[in-house]
Amino acid sequence: MIPSDPITLVLSIILCFLFVLFFFGQKKNAYNLPPGPRPLPIIGNLHILDMKRPHLTMHELSKKYGAVYTLQLGVEKVIVICGYEAVKDALVNHADEFSGRPKLAMFDEMYKGHGIFFTSNDNWKGMKRFTLSALRDFGMGKEAIENKISEESDFLVQKFRSYKGEPFDNILNINAAASNIIVYILLGRRFGYEDPTLLKLLKMNNENAILLGTPMAALYNTYPSVMRWFTSVSEKVQRNENEIHAFLQETFTINREQLDVNDQRNLIDSFLVKQREEKPNPKLYFTNENLTQLVADLYDAGMETTSTTLRWGLLLMMKYPEIQKKVQSEIDKVIGSNEPQVIHRREMPYTDAVIHEIQRFGNILPTNVSHATTQDVNFRGYLLPKGIQVIPLLTSILYDKDHFVKADEFYPEHFLDSSGNFVRKEAFMPFSAGKRSCAGENLAKMELYMFFTRLLQNFTFKAPPGAALDLTPAVGIVAGPMPYKMCAIPRV
């Protein structure tokens, strides 16, 4: 509660300020943190950050302060790790020590310690084990899921054909296609592209993805007790999340009524079976709350990241028509008019390189998802305290000129040798690395390849007459392209 008396208010602020100085001064003496820009009282280094695109400032600061430095957001110290070698050292060589999640107000309010993204300790470990197992059973590596992606590609092609070469915005169509793959794994069904339930889910999901990446959200996480008086961003995010949860819980009820332990149809069925098996155990992880948040997490990740990468891909093909033409030539040579299959990918080095370069250049999670240390850890000559927030900056890896010679350009040759053979790059890390890397990485790779090749097999993508193609990323927790329209010109 804010004091009504002005003198009391001023004294309260002064006392809080002295407490902060004392507390963080003690902490600084106890640990050996890396150097960084000098912070100001109360605001720390917020005044030097590009609040809409903080990854740009963070990457620039690494040139002065090195691969590991301290940034102060408000009164909280944050460790920023930059460059492939340093990030790999943290996330792979010190995987356990950097596998935590920080305490961030908005995400704590959303997730409440459930699910897989913003949980830690035993709950996270249990949910991750289950998720990897369920994705193997119902998704990754299965011929059935490849067939589903192929089938969904047909629906997407039909939808694009319906525009008859006229300009249209592709965001909802591509969101719906990617959404249907993860929905099939989670719920065992698909939605029509005009289904009002799907459109509502996509709208709420897209709104949250934008809101969570705004400066107001960052300020809310920095000063939650103050900012809740000045912004409704947390309320909007939570309202959307509650509606998504209500839909999911309604679906769970149907699944529970129809559950056959000997015929598990999807991930939810598998979770419900685990829930029954776990009931005698007093330390429960397979709770209704975990189920709701886990499915919401997987839906968000499975839809948002894949669809965003595909939208970058189509924009880049319009921007660079000569690259689009080379991809189509390879598709015609290897696949012809047949349906693309994953097995074709090994015969298509140029297309493979283009898809990898779309992921690198698109850089859709530029700051990564924040980590936290799980214990005091000695790292590269510094002693970092348990629980400190760590940002393993993906931008600094994907745009590292030591590994990508034309890092600021869209250049598929980053992934080709002089003979035109595909080459893997160790610094290609769009899914992050270590114990918190994307659980659905293999599924996402399959989707990107099959959707992309099917679309370019059927269409040539062009900008509407007179339209400018802007490659500036939009603001959001997932950095997609700015809204654009395109023309899908049928090839056959």
Keywords:
492 residues, alpha+beta, four-stranded mixed β-sheet, 17 helices, 52% helix
What would your notes on this structure say?
The chain is α+β, with helices and mostly antiparallel strands and 492 residues long. 52% of the residues lie in helices and 7% in strands. The chain has helices at 6-30, 54-65, 84-93, 105-111, 121-138, 143-161, 171-187, 196-211, 215-222, 224-227, 233-257, 267-278, 288-319, 321-334, 349-362, 394-398, 441-458, and strands at 68-73, 76-81, 168-169, 371-372, 377-379, 382-384, 389-392, 459-462, 485-490. Helix 11 (233-257) packs across helix 13 (288-319). The protein starts with 5 loop residues before the first helix and ends with a strand.
Query: What's the overall average pLDDT, rounded?
Result: 90
Round the Cα radius of gyration to an integer and report it.
24 Å
Share of residues in strands: 5-15%
Spatial strand arrangement across the major sheet: 1-2-7-4
* Helix-strand pattern: HHEEHHHHEHHHHHHHHHEEEEHHEE
End-to-end distance, in Å?
67 Å
